[in-house]
Design a protein that fits this description.
The complex is a heterotrimer. Chain A is an alpha+beta fold. Chain A has 20 helices and 10 strands. By secondary structure, chain C is of the alpha/beta class. At the A-B interface, α7, α9, α13, α14 and β1 of A face α1, β1, β2, α5 and α6 of B.
Chain lengths: 657, 172, 177
């Protein structure tokens, strides 16, 4: 009954999405306020029904209603409650419903926070979002109904994939989807701008916070996903350039370009058609990611179960959404030329250069990801494109991006003086080179990669410090605290995010240079030493949880004579799926992680143990956190709120009169 | 097509046995003290690791031979270890794998006619992108600044300040 | 409409074409580089008579199939009736390569499912499997009179594979030289 209710709510949501797609669009074209006004309630009603639908599915999982096929396949009566809940989106059908729900949340957020957009513009934005929503809800209903019944019901479910029974997986999918789907708002704004033919600084100002917030979600989602892979897949890697990882990374890269391009469009009115193209591109790549994960055209560790029929449906959706928007682009964008003029040496042009570079990087990642498919389709053989390729292309392309990233904020809009800029940044550049070599010598790992990585990190950090210093020096009279407070939060956002990149680069460089590990066979009382740490094996005991049995090893870790910590890696056997799982034990530190995983049992007392020291690896995620924080600061700048605040009294006055 | 891959989670026991067999040294019974490293020869093991990290485990979804726990990956690692141990070079071992499993086994595709676009593509994109950028920047310099009419200026200001009465959308 | 603004659309449509075509492909089937090359030599113990060995050379002058199987392999069971059927019609000798299996389990399996093999050899540690680039069971190699691999089928064979792919090739190879 509950499942049917959820199904019915989903059908109603589809109807409302069609209404939202159609009526406001017609209203905007005929200039009929009444029709345009339908968009908001339709979007809000749709959210209500999607929440009901999602709640019903969750209810089926929580109550272990195994007459619902999806729950039977992805849950178990003994699964801990939290993983019963996350099991809802730990599969293709449920995650699609989450996709639709995120889109609806974003849409409603637009109706709430962008109340002051011109009515016709808003109607078109909601219309576009309505069509996307209709596409995804119908995809869910027609090819991947999460409420399908299983008759007769089974007594017990098959449980959620043990790999997904992990805290990281609780928040990773929602964050990632909020990011993916969030780009739909920037996309809808872009399409609405193309439809109206009006694209100005105000448009860019409306789009900016939405894009930034979506980017924050995506950054956080990718970071959590990579953290999950690091400790859950058991081999300690944090990025594998897997097609599905790339599918999330490409919209991130293009979204990064879009944020910067929007800044120029807002401030200077320039790059307008380019900004529109990026907005379309970022969302298109999100859709492409959805296609790659769910169609089975590409082999990946993270892909959902394969079904070509679903693949065909998403492809059709992809062709419709992207095809139409690119036709619209080709038709309307030529009229968007113009904008502020700027010099070859200016912040405008350095931002544009970085934009182009980021687009090139995205293109290279896309090429590598899809190339096996191209060759196979042309019957030219099967190949694999993996980490060595991406490292060989990504790193050299990103070097100029990072170099320019530091220079651009020092430049003035419109026109700057090259020699002056060089003089300003010359010392920082020289110092960074010295630091790069010096640190590489100190850690005794002088390879070009290490030196390059350390140099880039130093360049970003020293450059950022200098930027902050010169910003503070702008108002020499004021007190330090006043000077700090005088800086708008958008500036802090930029600064934090850039510092985050520097921190991230340090993490990546150090882990690539200094990682050490050893595999040992250990029995009671035996010790193994790696670096400054001594591990003492203290046996294995059986641990029982509600849905698995684990062999848990206990290792004391000494640094010198001091007991540092006790680590407990596990080998789990999940009862329902009979899947063996390695549960890593981590000791996270600011300068290194200790990473211990338990291998196979060799005889009655001896176990294989993998010991790793991962220097600076947490800096990778610290960098991501800083980037995301930067995004939050940027989006919360009061400049974006001014619009709403100023018009609130105006609206009140209008109502009163 | 339900091809039965070697991934047999139910049969982890066999994997354990294989693994144990692979690593069984002449049994040195230690009561306590230093644990025995699995690798007889850490230097060789490091080479095995770095080579097999670039080999794709064919039966897995997308994992390298170094990371995978699938029995085939264990066998292939053993092959790599044995051949490197017998004094073969990295290139010879890679040739051995390619002649049996094809280019698919390599995570770094070799440069040949069919992969030329893959390897040169990023460079082409870069040159194209920079070329477009230069053209664009040049034409920019000559382009006159966009001049707003007084009316447009007023409308923009109204929009920014959020006065909907003035900013009512012009229909296109 | 200026042409340069159509470039993104053109790129996208080309991409979509490939993606659509990609849906019809199976990314997990990897073609073998051994097709057209001599079958790697082996001398392995027979399953039913471990003291005797059998090798590729014993099949010289005949067109034959090498079928890689194991008793633990579920899809081998699926294809087995077709192998039995093929052996029954006497069209072609089939040699079994019992891959990483236990002898008793394999013998029992053949007793239960029927034995289509002219001979079955055992590859206990999977070394010969690696020589043949085996990465999943079942796999089937078609080898000609000169001992050259002519075709490799990955995954279980079925009636279609037998009639539309294998039989025509076998007929042609048998006529030749």
């Amino acid at each position: 009954m509950i499942a049917e209710l959820g199904h019915f709510a989903l059908i109603l949501a589809l109807v409302l999405s069609l209404v939202q797609g159609l009526v406001p669009m017609i209203g905007a074209n005929r200039n009929r306020i009444a029709l345009m006004a339908v968009g908001r309630p339709a979007a809000q009603g749709q959210l209500v029904f999607l929440v009901i639908s999602f709640a019903c599915l969750t209810y089926a999982f929580i109550t272990s209603d195994f007459s619902v096929r999806l729950a039977a396949a992805n849950s178990h009566s003994q699964t801990p409650l939290i993983y019963k809940i996350t099991g809802v989106w730990g599969n293709h059908e449920g995650s699609l419903l989450l996709w639709a729900l995120s889109l609806s949340l974003w849409t409603v957020a637009v109706t709430v926070f962008s109340r002051d957009l011109p009515e016709a513009f808003m109607a078109r934005v909601l219309g576009v979002l309505g069509w996307i929503s209709a596409g995804f809800i119908s995809f869910t209903l027609f090819t991947s109904n999460p409420f399908e019944r299983l008759l007769p019901a089974v007594a017990e479910g098959r449980d959620l994939n043990p790999l997904l029974q992990d805290p990281g997986m609780i928040i990773h999918p929602p964050l990632l989807y909020m990011g993916y789907v969030g780009f739909s708002v920037a996309f809808a704004f872009a399409i609405a701008a193309l439809l109206t033919g009006r694209l100005d600084a105000a448009w860019a100002r409306w789009s900016r916070p939405w894009t930034t917030v979506a980017w924050v979600f995506l950054t956080a989602g990718i970071a959590v996903g990579s953290g999950w892979a690091y400790y859950e897949l058991g081999w300690g890697g944090w990025w594998f350039w897997d097609p599905v990882e790339n599918a999330s990374f490409m919209p991130w890269l293009l979204g990064t370009a879009l944020m910067h391009s929007l800044a120029v469009t807002e401030k200077r009115g320039a790059f307008r058609s380019w900004t529109i193209l990026l907005a379309i591109g970022a969302f298109s790549l999100s859709l492409l990611g959805t296609f790659l994960v769910r169609s089975g055209v590409i082999t990946s560790v993270h892909a959902f179960a394969v079904d070509p029929a679903r693949g065909l449906y998403i492809l059709a959706l992809l062709v419709l959404v992207i095809g139409i928007s690119l036709v619209l682009f080709a038709w309307r964008a030529p009229k968007l030329a113009g904008g502020g003029s700027f010099d070859l040496v200016s912040r405008d042009s350095s931002l544009l250069a970085n934009n182009v570079l980021l687009a090139v990087v995205t293109g290279a990642v896309l090429l590598g990801t899809l190339y096996p498919l191209f060759l196979d389709a042309l019957n030219l053989g099967k190949i694999s494109v993996g980490p060595p390729y991406f490292e060989a292309t990504f790193v050299p392309l990103m070097v100029p991006v990072v170099l320019l990233m530091v220079v651009a904020p020092f430049m003035r809009w419109k026109k700057d003086d090259l020699p002056k800029t060089l003089r300003k940044l010359g010392p920082a550049f020289g110092a960074s080179i010295i630091v790069g070599f010096l640190v590489a010598f100190v850690i005794d790992h002088v390879t070009w990669r290490t030196v390059l990585g350390l140099f880039l990190a130093a360049w970003v950090l020293i450059g950022s410090a200098q930027l902050l210093w010169s910003r503070l020096a702008e108002r020499p009279g004021a007190a330090a605290s006043n000077r700090l407070r005088g800086i708008p939060s958008a500036w802090w956002g930029m600064w934090l995010a850039h510092v985050g990149v520097g921190i991230f680069v340090i993490g990546v460089t150090m882990i690539g240079s200094l990682e050490s590990h050893t595999d040992v066979r250990m029995r009671d009382g035996q010790t193994a030493t790696i670096g400054k740490y001594t591990f003492v094996f203290q046996g294995v005991r059986e641990v029982q949880a509600s849905n698995y049995i684990a062999a848990q090893a206990k290792l004391q870790v000494f640094k010198g004579d001091r007991l540092l910590t006790t680590m407990t890696p596990e080998k789990r056997n999940y009862v329902a799926s009979a899947m063996p799982m390695t549960q890593v034990s981590l000791h996270i530190g600011p300068l290194r992680d200790l990473y211990v995983s338990l291998g196979d049992q060799l005889d009655s007392e001896t176990w294989l143990v993998n010991l790793h020291i991962k220097p600076f690896i947490s800096w990778i995620w610290a960098g991501c956190i800083l980037m995301a924080l930067g995004g939050i600061f940027a989006a919360s700048d009061k400049r974006y709120r001014r619009l709403a605040e100023r018009s609130a009294p105006a609206a009140a006055a209008r109502q009163a009169s | 097509m339900p091809v039965d891959r070697f991934v047999r989670p139910l049969n982890a026991g066999i994997a354990v046995l294989l693994f144990a067999a692979l690593f069984s040294l002449p049994s040195v019974t230690l009561s306590a003290g230093e644990a025995t490293p699995v690798a007889e020869n850490p230097e060789l093991e490091a080479r095995v690791q770095s080579l097999s990290r670039n080999l794709r485990c064919l039966v897995c979804q997308n994992e390298s031979v170094a990371e995978s726990r699938a029995p085939l990956a264990v066998d292939l690692r053993a092959q790599v270890r044995e051949q490197l141990g017998a004094g073969k070079s990295e290139a010879e071992v890679v040739d051995f794998m390619v002649s049996r499993y094809g280019d698919f086994v390599l995570y770094r595709p070799p440069f040949k006619a069919s992969t030329a676009l893959l390897w040169l593509g990023p460079l082409v994109l870069l040159v194209g992108g920079l070329g477009w950028l230069l053209l664009r920047l040049r034409s920019r310099e000559q382009e006159p600044a966009l001049h707003l009419t007084e009316d447009e200026r007023r409308r923009a200001r109204a929009l920014l300040e959020g006065n909907p009465a003035d900013s009512e959308e012009q229909r296109s | 409409m200026k042409a340069k603004f159509l470039v993104p659309l053109a790129i996208f449509l080309a991409l979509a074409g490939f993606l659509g075509y990609g849906l019809t492909l199976n990314p997990s089937v990897v073609p073998s580089p051994l097709v057209g090359k001599p079958a790697p030599a082996f001398q392995l113990a027979k399953l039913d008579a471990p003291q005797e060995t059998f090798g590729v050379d014993d099949m010289r002058g005949q067109v034959w199939l090498l079928n890689v199987w194991a008793s633990w392999c579920v899809s081998c069971r699926q294809e087995h009736p077709y192998l039995v059927e093929m052996a029954g019609t006497g069209g072609i000798p089939v040699i079994g390569l019992n891959y990483k299996d236990e002898r008793q389990a394999a013998i029992g399996w053949l007793r239960a499912q029927g034995d289509p093999y002219l001979a079955t050899v055992t590859d206990e540690d999977g070394r010969v499997g690696i020589e043949y680039g085996v990465y999943g069971t079942p796999e089937t190699f078609l080898i000609d009179k000169d001992g050259v691999i002519r075709y490799k089928h990955i995954g279980p064979i079925n009636r279609d594979t037998v009639q539309k792919v294998l039989m025509p090739m076998i007929a042609e190879l048998s006529r030749a030289g």
